[in-house]
Amino acid sequence: MQPLFLTFQLALIVTIILLIIGVPLAYWIAFSKSRFKYVIETLVSMPLVLPPTVIGFYLLIAFSPQYFFGHFLEDILGVRVVFSFTGLVIGSVIFSLPFMVNPIKAGFQNFPLTLIEASLCLGKTPWQTLRRVILPNIKPALLTGMVMAFAHTIGEFGVVLMIGGNIPGQTRLASMVIYDEVEALNYHTAGFYALVLVLISFFILLVFYYLNRKALKIF
Amino acid sequence: MMIKIRCKRQMHTHQGEEWLDVDLNISEGEFIAIFGESGAGKTTILRFLAGLILPQEGFIEVDGEIWYDSRCKINLPVNSRKIGFVFQENNLFPHMTARQNLEYACSDRKYQGDIDEWISVLGLKGLEDQRPDKLSGGQKQRVALARALIRRPKMLLLDEPLSDLDIHSRLKLQDEIHKVYTKTRITTILVSHDISEIFKLSNMVFVLERGKIIKFGSPEKVFVNNDLSGKFKFTGEILEIHQDGVLNILTISIGNQVTKVIATGEEIAGLSIGSKVIVAAKAFNPLILKTS
């Protein structure tokens, strides 16, 4: 059961971190007039098109203690990223970033500008406007981002295998167990984990679409 | 208080590139109307004042304080300008009730009492706990008007707030705006293309055409006095009924003009301000004047 527990723990932490960095990032992309906005948009969307192993490979190189950055982290700060839970979190955050940012960005872009103007004309700062006017009205977009990021993290395999290294109890996630068990011809165990993942993913999405339908009715 | 606006900005209209180029001085407590066709740049002037659009050149000074100056690169952010803005389209916050919309606008606890006062003055009692989607167009604009006033702004900017309403709600809201003005004497700028509205509310009107002010003065001076028109039958709206001895003088808005017509007591029975009427002449002796 531990790989399942670890999988959900990872998905939860990743979703929270992504929510914290995803909202400001999406806000910037949606409202910034910077000429280099499209560069950031491209970078955010890269994980959508790259094979997960490519991202995992670069993360592995970047954080490896044999190279400068990884060496710096380990020697100075005492943090080891590769083959650790921290590494899983970092890899997953990068890999699931577009799943959180893109729906929220769309929510910001579709939000009526006149409401933002009305709020500013009432003497409210952009921050107050974001917190009290925009965010409460784009809850469906926030929910979409959170559910997509959470579900996508559960379904990860390539990135986490590369950077996590499949260490039991530390970095061994449900998706890796399935792979291992199939390799060892233990179809029974693999089937159990697969079924649990299918059922949980199904119910998360089911609840999400149900809530979203209700949320849409309000507007 | 004095508002000085001297602003230029290029506009893209369907007639090509035009320069919006205005120079206005507005004194404290005036009710100004800006009149013109759509695309003339009326709304842009209000948005300059609010800081929602920046002029390419010029300055805005309110009460001795510079809000915008292109040369010194001064630009007071929108939220630091003490204005009340009522927009043409409804933009109440949909997730808040009418009262919450007003509470959101109330940044100073001292003015908390204003919320209840405006609710009762503008006839919003009983609607406070409704969300905007449950309110009619006229009710929404009344909430929007109250919301704009809660901050005790230095000026009230009204961007065709009545144009999406039916005639009944429009007349009612005109009365409410008039009530607000007489109560507060707040400097008000109304953008409108409806002469009867301007006549009823404002004491000074600027006529804007293709980005330039071509005429200004009192509504009477600007709109009356040119009533040599070539048609025998008009439809119009009554602006004012004035009794002068046995005569009744009706001020009627016809098309883009306002004229005064004498009527008998019989004729005005059942008429009131806002009534739509037909003005026709039976025995008509038209004047033909050579103009060129």
Protein model, in words:
- The complex is a heterodimer of chains A (219) and B (292).
- By secondary structure, chain A is mostly helical.
- Chain A has a single domain (2-218), classed as MetI-like fold, CATH 1.10.3720.
- Chain A is built from 11 helices and no strands.
- Chain A has helices at residues 2-31, 37-49, 52-63, 68-77, 85-110, 113-121, 126-137, 139-154, 158-164, 174-183, 187-218.
- The longest helix of chain A is centred in the last third of the chain and has 32 residues, at 187-218.
- The N and C termini of chain A lie far apart (42 Å).
- The mean pLDDT of chain A is 90.
- Chain B has helices spanning 42-50, 98-105, 112-121, 137-150, 167-184, 195-201, 219-223, 265-268, and strands at residues 2-13, 16-27, 31-35, 57-62, 65-69, 74-75, 83-86, 155-159, 187-192, 204-209, 212-217, 233-244, 247-254, 257-263, 276-280.
- In chain B, strand 12 and strand 13 form a beta hairpin.
- Chain B folds into 2 domains: 2-223, P-loop containing nucleotide triphosphate hydrolases (Rossmann fold, 3-Layer(aba) Sandwich); 233-280, OB fold (Dihydrolipoamide Acetyltransferase, E2P) (Beta Barrel), CATH 2.40.50.
- Chain B has 8 helices and 15 strands.
- The longest helix of chain B is centred in the middle third of the chain and has 18 residues, at 167-184.
- In chain B, helix 3 (112-121) packs antiparallel against helix 4.
- Chain B is α/β, with parallel strands linked by helices and 292 residues long.
- In chain B, the strands form 3 sheets. Chain B has a 6-stranded mixed β-sheet with strand order 7-8-9-3-10-11, with helices on both faces. A 5-stranded antiparallel β-sheet of chain B has the order 2-1-4-5-6, covered by helices on one side. Chain B has a 4-stranded antiparallel β-sheet with strand order 14-13-12-15.
- Chain A binds chain B through residues 112, 114-115, 117-126, 132-133, 136-137, 219, and chain B through 50, 52, 77-80, 82-85, 87, 89, 91-95, 104-105, 107, 147-148, 150-151.
